[in-house]
Every structure is written in C-alpha cells, then in structure tokens.
Design brief:
The chain has five helices and four strands. By secondary structure, it is mostly helical. The protein has a single domain, classed as Divalent-metal-dependent TIM barrel enzymes (TIM Barrel), CATH 3.20.20.150. The strands form two sheets. The chain has a two-stranded parallel ribbon with strand order 1-2. Strands 3-4 form a two-stranded antiparallel ribbon. Strand 1, helix 2 and strand 2 form a beta-alpha-beta unit.
C-alpha cells in the first residue's frame, strides 16, 4: 500500500528530478534512451497537474523522455488528451491504462480514456 505523505513536496520533487537526471545521464552516456513514468498513488510526488508542470519543465529532455500513463494521468485529476498534447515533444513511450469515472482501474476500452484519439494524435504528430 502506498502512503499518502506529500510533506516536503518541493524538496522531494527536486531530489527525484536530480536522481532521474543523474541516472538517465549515465544511461545516455552508454547510448541507452530513457523515459520517466509518473504514477498516481496518493503519496506520489508527481501526481497532479501542478506536479507534472514541475517535473516536465525540469527534466533534462536531452537525456530523458516522458512515458505518460493515461490512467495515472486521469487518476491524478488531469485530462489525458491535454497532457499528451501539451507534452507531445517529450513522449518516448506510452503506457495505456484505463480508469472508470469513479477512479477505479478498468480493462482497456472499458473506462473513460479515449485511446483511439490518443493513438491518432500520436500518429499524426510523429516527431
């Protein structure tokens, strides 16, 4: 069970970003491409829109991409289409997970995420 502690959030976010950049920097030196996948437990330091702004405006995009998860985005109270569109240039990998209107996980296609729209947008905006 994940905790709900979001105390010292800004410091914890800065620490996480520093670790992500350090690890992905070492990987990049070895020719390994990396992406970061935020999740949505109540205690996650990158859970809601404000957290994503901090994360995605701070990561070194030369060495780390974004691996959005549609279900975790929705569980964090965000619009998956908006996040995918806003950060399209950073996306290197996608994790599809569906969610119900009440916030429970659902089989892909049985929830509220518009996967065909995401796939079309990604295909139409190849970078």
């Amino acid at each position: 069970m994940h905790g709900t502690d979001r105390s010292n959030l800004h410091q914890r976010q800065a620490n996480a970003i520093a670790c992500i950049d350090a690890i992905t920097g070492r990987a990049a030196d070895l020719g390994i491409e990396c992406s970061f996948h935020p999740n949505s437990p109540a205690g996650s330091v990158f859970r809601i829109k404000e957290d994503y702004l901090v994360l995605l405006d701070s990561l070194d995009s030369r060495i780390v991409g974004f691996a959005p998860d549609a279900g975790h985005i929705a569980k964090g109270g965000m619009d998956a289409i908006e996040i995918f569109n806003t950060y399209r240039s950073l996306i290197k990998h996608i994790h599809f997970k569906d969610i119900t209107t009440s916030g429970g996980w659902a089989a892909m296609g049985a929830g509220i995420i518009d996967f065909p729209r995401i796939v079309t947008m990604m295909r139409d905006t190849r970078l």
